[in-house]
Amino acid sequence: MYPDECHDGELSQTSYKLASHFLDQCPNLRFHYVDICQYHIDSDELFFLMKMHIIPATQHLSIGLGESVNRSTDLTTSTLQQILSSTSDRLESLRLKIGLLDGSIQNVRPTNQTVIRELEQGYVEVKKAQEFAINNIMRFPGVKTLKEFRIEQCMFSFQAQEIWRQLWDQCGQIENLVVGDVCEEVLEHLAEGISNSMPWLHNIYFRTDDPATEYELNDVTVAKILSAGTRGWTAIHFDVNTVVGPAALSALAQHYSTLEDLCFVQNVDSNVLIPILVACPNLRELVTIASEAILPVVLPEITAVQFIDQDPWTYSLRPWACEGTLKKLKVRITEVPPFVGALPTIQRKVYERLARLENLEVLWLGHQPQVVLGEHSLDDALFQQETCLDMTLASGLGKLDRLKNLSELNLSGMEHDLEDEVEAEWMAKHWPNLAVVSGLGKSSEAATWFAHNRPYVFLD
Predict the structure, then answer these.
(1) From the centroid of its chain, how far is CA 184?
(2) Are 152 and 97 within 8 A, CB to CB?
(3) Rounded to an integer, what is the distance from CA 445 to the centroid of its chain?
(4) Cα dist. 331→381, 391, 414, 415 in Å?
(5) Cis? peptide before 246, omega within 30° of 0
């Protein structure tokens, strides 16, 4: 049942009868993933079959994800209501990329008369939807068992306020929430819904399909959403279009005790990161470097002096609550003075701080993504780090022999001096789980040594 089988937006009667007869014989039908696109909705017959047979049997449902990046599926509120009312308790995740058009909740979308005549079951289904709307009661069976809700894109219709309110009220089992390019009015309802109806929600990801979009989620709105969480956030990811200012940071601080996974893909500085490292006893992942190329170019960083976090009176390193739990750290450490002689230096202190994170498995100190704009690549100099760790044994690399679990090291874009095979041999000896090393010069002695002696180590 694809677009080429539809004529003038309608499914041919032969195709409809065959599909209807076939689906009637499949009471135990199951679908792992279904994406409802515009053409499913534009055909009355096809939309009817989707509601009666496909949607109730679906485990992971998306609406509009099959459209292009810059386009969403346009729905009336009554159409969205009918889709959600057709879900069942098999539903585990729901993804929306929609634009809601003006349309009263009471105006249930009419179904083709041929369908109603042929299937008495269909007539009952439509009448039930009308009764629910008239009494202003919306029942979304699948939403009640939902574990993950992804709102990729959603524009607001004033007449959709009630459907959003009742939707959030039925999201009592949600654990994971993804918020994308969503208008302010929907977010206002969302914050209220999180506070009143989502006791199990503990992971939230602010993420847009298109990082280059002009959409921006402001600081106050982010703070309202974070403050609404009642269970304590376990994972929070902020993308480049999310403004994390004073209000959001204050709300974030209320969840330090439960936080395990935190991602800032934007220009955050040492004043933001250090308090988090100091105060989060369960933190396992701190990411301030995007795995993929994003626009506009974002270069989060932390200065060496602040990363060391030294007591000004005793000159010893202050303890961090996450020292025993942190497994993944992706952060650019800048303003590292050059190593000189054997005297105590800033570099040695940075190594000493890193060495206290004994359970680290992934360590990114640099990043050099391939960013292409039209026919031109962005200048690599944007990602270069001149004042960085030397990554040599002479400068203090040996202090990292305590990182026995390290499996991935990224030095991309760093002007380090890790060139000789003596450092490569030391890394292989003290980091037995090492599987990925990024940022070594391909012609360096270190890279050659790995290629000959540890061919299973991937060199990027």
Answers:
(1) 20
(2) yes
(3) 38
(4) 18, 15, 12, 16
(5) no
Sign of dihedral through CA atoms 105, 111, 116, 120? Answer: negative
* Residue 14 CB contacts under 8 Å (≥ 6 apart), including other chains: none
Domain ranges, ordered by start, for the chain: 292-460
Q: 181 pairs with which residues across the strands?
A: 153
CA angle centred on 84, ends 80 and 88, rounded to 5°: 165
List the one residue out of 459, 401, 392 whose CA is nearest residue 432: 401
CA distance 429 to 446: 14
Spell out the per-residue pLDDT of the chain, length 460, in tens.
444 444 444 556 677 677 776 777 777 788 899 998 887 787 777 888 888 888 999 999 988 866 555 556 677 778 888 888 889 999 999 998 887 655 443 333 334 443 334 334 443 444 444 444 434 556 788 888 899 999 888 765 555 677 788 888 888 899 999 998 887 778 888 898 999 999 999 999 998 766 556 678 888 999 999 999 999 999 999 887 788 889 999 999 999 999 999 998 776 767 889 999 999 999 999 998 876 655 555 567 788 999 999 988 988 999 999 999 999 999 989 888 887 765 558 899 999 999 999 999 999 998 766 554 444 445 555 667 788 899 999 999 999 999 999 999 999 888 888 989 999 999 999 999 999 999 888 888 999 999 999 999 999 8
Nearest to 400 by CA among 366, 365, 360, 351: 351
Residues whose CB is less than 8 angstroms from the CB of residue 75 and which lie 6 or more positions away in sequence, other chains included:
41, 63, 83, 98, 99, 100, 101
- 120-134 helix and 77-85 helix, angle to the nearest 10 degrees: 120
The candidate with the shortest Cα–Cα distance to 2, out of 40, 32, 55, 42, is 40
- Structure-block tokens of residue 115: 């369908």
Per the CB < 8 A criterion, the answer to whether 107 and 76 are in contact is yes
The span from the CA of 296 to the CA of 298, in Å, is 6
Is there a contact between 39 and 68 (Cβ–Cβ < 8 Å)? no
The full DSSP string for 320-353 is -TTTTT--EEE--EE--PPP-TTS--HHHHHHHH
The dihedral sign for the CA sequence 347, 353, 359, 360:
negative
CATH 3.80.10 fits domain 292-460: yes
Q: How many CA atoms does the CB half-sphere of 2 hold within 13 Å?
A: 2
CA distance linking residue 326 with residue 358, whole number of Å: 8
